[in-house]
Design goal:
Blueprint: E1 5-9, H1 15-24, E2 28-32, H2 40-45, E3 48-49, H3 53-57, E4 62-65, H4 70-79, H5 82-85, E5 91-94, H6 100-112, E6 116-119, E7 122-123, H7 125-130, E8 134-139, H8 142-155, E9 156-162, H9 166-194, H10 199-206, H11 214-225, H12 234-250, H13 256-270, H14 281-288
Parallel strand pairs: 1-2, 1-4, 2-3, 4-5, 5-6, 8-9
Antiparallel strand pairs: 7-8
């Protein structure tokens, strides 16, 4: 088995640039996506397009799964023959954001085929994927992590958190912070704007202080420019806050802050903004205050 052969399933907003980095790093990358048009750039770069997800999984050392959610990963991995097509000792790396219990269940099912498993969700958005500086949170065995470290490092900064499921637990924590910070920056910007402040100058003034963050810099700019082309669609953010609340309930925890933020994203999506970037949450706050949704809107 070629140790530099990788199957890559799911080449959307995040998956395409991630797979492209692997191609450029001289890995032999076999790709599949349900929408073949999303493979064109990768094919031009040298990736091999496959007619099915199972075909992408044959004769590879690693199979990366970058799909939308847990049920979709389960469907492709086990109902569409992906894991069954893999060689024993190959490693499945699920880089999607899925529930902890789903990762644990997938690892158990993979083991029945003699296939190893890492859950390795990412943070950094489309820009982080494009610039190969994703935060990669990994759950699994130390030996499996070491085997995959080199290829994961091509896409960003991998850190082994603990056993299978730990990567997803870290991603849930990450998404709680992201969602809550987006909500807080949105409220702060709305308050400052109504008080007469120039938001671009506000963002500049806050840079380097305790309130500074990647959210303030990247998503704050989106809010100022009213540019909500998705890097991370709001509907995926809602999926993650739902996952966090479900896990909290199972652990007997009350998370009032995340409950509130979750409800804001639910309203945003109910108003038709689910495919916008999650920073478009400021539009929902504008709605609640009967304000124009953006500079050119009423």
């Amino acid at each position: 088995m070629d140790d530099r052969a990788i199957g890559f399933i799911g080449t959307g907003i995040m998956g395409e640039p991630m797979a492209l980095h692997l191609v450029k790093a001289s890995y032999r990358v076999k790709v599949w996506n349900r929408s073949p048009a999303k493979l064109l750039k990768l094919i031009e770069a040298g990736a091999e397009a496959c007619p099915s997800p199972a075909a992408a999984a044959r004769d590879v050392a690693f199979l990366i799964c970058m799909l939308s959610d847990g049920p979709t990963c389960d469907e492709v991995l086990f109902n569409e023959g992906v894991v069954a097509a893999m060689r024993p000792e190959a490693i499945v790396i699920v880089m999607s954001s899925i529930p902890v219990e789903t990762a644990v269940s997938e690892a158990r099912k993979c083991a029945e085929y003699g296939v190893r498993y890492l859950d390795a969700p990412v943070s950094g958005g489309q820009r982080g994927a494009q610039e190969a500086r994703l935060a990669i949170m990994v759950g699994g065995e130390q030996g499996d992590f070491e085997a995959a470290r080199e290829l994961l490092s091509v896409m960003g900064r991998p850190v082994l958190i603990g056993p299978v499921g730990s990567g997803q637990l870290a991603k849930i924590a990450n998404q709680m912070i992201v969602a809550s910070t987006i909500a807080t920056v949105s409220e702060a910007f709305l308050l400052a704007e109504r008080g007469g402040a120039d938001l671009a100058k506000l963002r500049e003034a806050l840079t380097g202080g305790f309130a500074d963050s990647t959210i303030l810099q990247q998503h704050g700019r989106r809010m100022i420019e009213n540019d909500f082309q998705p890097g991370g669609p709001a509907k995926w953010q809602l999926k993650d806050t739902h996952t966090a609340l479900a896990l909290a309930k199972s652990l007997g925890l009350s998370l009032p802050g995340v409950n509130l933020v979750d409800s804001l994203f639910e309203s945003m999506i109910a108003h038709g903004d689910g495919d916008l970037d999650h920073s478009a949450l400021i539009r929902e706050l504008r709605r609640r205050n009967n304000l124009p949704l953006g500079p050119q809107e009423k």
